[in-house]
Amino acid sequence: MKENKILLVSDFVGVGKVALSAMIPILNTMEANASYLPTAMISNNFDHGKAVVEELTDFMENSKNTWKELNFQFDIITTGIVMNTNQVDTIKDIIKYHDKKPLVISDPIMGDDGKLYSGLSMDLIEASRLMALEADIIIPNLTEFSLIVGRDYPDPERLEHSQLVAWLEKARGRGVKSAIITSVHMGNEYYVYGYSKNEDIFRVKIDYVPVRVGGAGDIFTSLIIGKYTKEQDLKKAVEYATKTLTEIIKKEYQESVIIGQVNEIKIQNHLQYIYKTL
Q1: How crowded is the C-beta side of 20, counted as CA atoms within 13 Å?
Q2: Domains of the chain (ranges plus CATH)?
Q3: What are 221-261's pLDDT values in tens digits?
């Protein structure tokens, strides 16, 4: 079986089992060869309410120049937090020097519940919009997707299926090739929506677990990557990632958990389960 070489372009977080610290062990378990390029150093998980963010734009550009000389080639490039448009330009240059265009997946980390994470700037929105056009697949949550398409974050009690379909069609019309939208709260139900160039708009219902978990999006994206590279069916990848992540959260947390505290997943306890389900 081919071992995919994956470049993770995202942030390093000092305190918190999120971002690269969550993604790398999962992808290694899913038979990938993971490398990484940090876009920023962040003091801690954003769920703590505040964080210090240090951009690494110059480091990215210098790394790109060296990698081009050394002819480092990757099968997949996935991006998380991209801090500014200069970082997008560096990522585009990395893509261009490849002998064969890699699969590009963008998970634009910007915010949740209709708000930007503390410590992030508005430059992030424009950078994420540009990455959405470069990517083969984008995986924003509903807050991030609202920012990408330039719409106000919707009230869950008023959000309707037809409205979200219209937003997805708008994104497709603007050149977004494939999209997966997570954290869609519609009435009393939760969904993941999506489409690809080979698939009509679909949605997958979530067996919602009422606990806020830091790093869940990073785990979801890693599961999507691992499944999609084995079988290029986006809906099946979403169904797999949704079910697997839900089971991991259920195993990690019990009903007695205090809602609202900073929760994270000890992903090392679930790697064998991920390997068996893949």
Answers
A1: 21
A2: 4-277 (3.40.1190.20)
A3: 999 999 999 889 999 999 999 999 999 998 887 644 545 55
